[in-house]
Amino acid sequence: MDGILYVVRTGCAWRYLPADSPPWQTVYWYFKQWEDAKVTEAMLATLREQARVQQGRDPQPSADIIDSQSVKGADTVGRDSRGYDAGKKSNGRKRFIVTDTLGLLIVVVVLAASVQDRDGAKTTRRT
């Protein structure tokens, strides 16, 4: 778990985990298994609900806040996943982030920058 958190926090490549970590292949294997089983999403949902209850709120939010941001794509980003945002005059991706009214993360979606905000917002719906 510490190895996964290290990669997420620092943004380093799996191969560059500190020497005192397990082999990077092992850490990545666990990460992949947990992602496929949606363990991370379940943990975040549980932690969000607990934080809301501690704040005296219902466990499930009744309102969401959404925002988008266009980000220039690096040369390593495939052309098929990039787009041109005419409003921002940037070629890259657009991220849509949904939070509850406490600012706790609910959904993150990354699309081509050419996707209109109204269309991108539709992809962030949760059930």
Automatic annotation (TrEMBL):
Q: Write down the InterPro entries for this protein, in alphabetical order.
A: IS402-like_dom (IPR025161), Transposase_11 (IPR002559)
Basic and acidic residues composition bias: residue spans:
77-88
Molecular functions (GO terms): DNA binding; transposase activity
Segments forming domain Insertion element IS402-like:
1-43
Could you state one GO biological process linked to this protein? Answer: DNA transposition
What residue stretches are annotated with the Transposase IS4-like domain? Answer: 65-125
Membrane-crossing residue ranges in chain numbering = 96-115
Keywords assigned? Membrane, Transmembrane, Transmembrane helix
Q: Name one Pfam family in it.
A: DDE_Tnp_1
Q: Where is this region: Disordered?
A: 51-90
Name the chain's protein. Transposase
The organism encoding this protein is Dactylosporangium sucinum
Q: Source organism lineage?
A: Bacteria, Bacillati, Actinomycetota, Actinomycetes, Micromonosporales
